[in-house]
Amino acid sequence: MSATSAPRGARRWRLALRASVCLLSATLLAGCGTSGGSAIPPAPGCAQHDGLPDPRCTPGAIRPGVTLAAICAFGYSRAVRPPESFTEPLKLAQMRAYRLPGSPSDYEEDHLVPLSIGGAPRDPRNLWPEPRAGPNSAEHKDRLETWAARMACAHRIPLSRLQHGMASDWIALYRAAGGERMLLAYPTDG
Predict the structure, then answer these.
(1) 129 backbone dihedrals φ, ψ, rounded to 5°
(2) How would you classify the pairing of strands 107-111 and 127-131?
(3) DSSP 128
(4) Helix or strand holding residue 110 (H, E)
């Protein structure tokens, strides 16, 4: 049976379904462009301190208009994550700005405010080359990101408080959450 010969109720249902899919797609993709930032990396002279990015160069950024319902929806982070074709050139430029030693594989281009709690996906102010090794490594932050998303979505800690904690000093937030002893229960794959 073709769409034109289908009963009127079935056509309305299909149109409503298509509209819902379009609305969901638009909601997930909104804000995937640069939000207030540009693809221009920070000026040279940035410095990491004990696993934290330089706040002058990487202050963190929140995706405008993001809601708790949106970020807690299954697949949100994956849907808004920028492709490697965007993040890899930015990582290389930021490595130069931060004067980081080693290979690009020694670093993970990370969102200071994680996507899972509403961080801006493509804003360079929210992206930085995070060390994969060391006392405050990407693995430690990844566990914290999983914990933070669960706390936000369970309404146990206000989203804005988690976003601010990540942007200002994720290591202090890590310690407040219980550090390695507590966060080992949270997988790094979110």
Answers:
(1) -80, 100
(2) antiparallel
(3) E
(4) strand 107-111
3-state secondary structure of 188: coil
> Would you place residue 39 in the very low, low, confident or very high pLDDT band (cuts 50, 70, 90)?
low
**Residue type, position 125, single letter:** R
Q: Which residues contact 160 (CB under 8 A, 6 or more apart)?
A: none
Q: What is the pLDDT of residues 134-152, one digit of tens each?
A: 888 898 899 899 999 999 9
From CA 182, how far away is CA 133, in angstroms rounded?
A: 20
Instruction: Please tell me the distance from the alpha carbon of residue 106 to that of residue 85, in angstroms, as a whole number.
Output: 18
Q: What percent of the chain has pLDDT over 70?
A: 74
State the DSSP string of 2-48.
Answer: -TTTS-HHHHHHHHHHHHHHHHHHHHHHTT-S-SS--SPPPPS----
